[in-house]
Amino acid sequence: MQAYLFVHFKEKRTPDGEQVYFGISTDGFHWDEVNHGNPVLWSYEGDLGVRDFTITRTKENKFVILATDLSLAYGWPYKYKQSWKEIGENGSKCLVMWESEDLIHWSNQKMIKLGDDDYGCLWAPDIIYDKVNDDYIIHWSSSHKKNNYGPKAIYYTRTKDFKEFTPAQELYRKEDSGIIDSAMYEENGIYYNFIKSEGNPSRIILVKSDCVTGPWERVYEFDKYMEPLQEGLYEAPTAFRYEDGRWCLMLDFYGTDATGQGYVPFLADSLEKANFVRSDASFSFPYGFKHGTILPITMEEYERLKAYEKNPNER
Fold first, then answer.
1. Reading across the β-sheet that carries 262-268, which strands appear in turn?
2. Which of the four, 14, 68, 80, 200, has the lowest number of CB atoms within 10 Å?
3. C-alpha dihedral over 115, 234, 293, 135, to 10 degrees?
4. What is the pLDDT of residues 13-26, one digit of tens each?
5. Any bridge partners for residue 298, and if so which?
6. Cα separation of 172 and 179, whole Å?
7. Inter-residue contact 235 to 180 (CB < 8 Å)
8. pLDDT digits (tens, 9 = 90+) for 243-300
9. Is this model's pTM higher than 0.90 or not?
């Protein structure tokens, strides 16, 4: 039997919201908070805030968290002049990383510079293992100097050890709009990538390839299941697979005030069918989880996290 870990942040106007939070579940439907709903990790470098998390379990059974280096609580009013464009062009060229062997004890925060000065801010990283090359693909969205920091594309780097990284390359670009928030999964040798399209349509789209770095083709069957959703209100897709083979896709709903924001669940038989049906009534959450990633964990790991408590004065 497996359980599930949700690494996320909270939509708050104070600095404690843009830190690392954990949620846990034994069934993937009903979720509980870890550490009494308080942050598990804090950012003390870069922008002093972190968002848009991904987590992976490596071949060596270690855990890696990556995040966007960004604090709106600190930076929005003055540093970024209340401008998303300013963040997109002049935000951090680094991702934030933590490593652990047990999900309880974590390394010091590391700043991983993956973009050179031609890149804008590095947003929303995701990690997938490439079994062909026996390494890991880290992919994220950025604007770039080559199109005057216009519509964003998805870029990637490779690493075997999360210490050395190859030069960044373009993974996928949508010609008629910017794209952000890529989340990639493998099923039966095919790679499926959920991506937020910023136009035409302004919804989550799905592309697939038999190679982890493309080329990619649209899965138009998926669009039929997203059409009932109002455009421009959902982002940050993350998915996980149940033990019975079904998939759950979570979309982050941001089209309301902060108290009403959080993930909305959709269930499908498979990624190949892409028949994701909204299933709110089957799920319960203690609060509005924001942009994160869900990782299957063991019941032993679940019990450790359930018992975890961190003194508020402890770094």
1. 234-241, 247-253, 262-268, 277-278
2. 14
3. -40
4. 899 999 999 999 99
5. 2
6. 9
7. yes
8. 999 999 999 999 888 888 899 999 999 999 999 999 999 999 999 999 999 999 999 9
9. yes
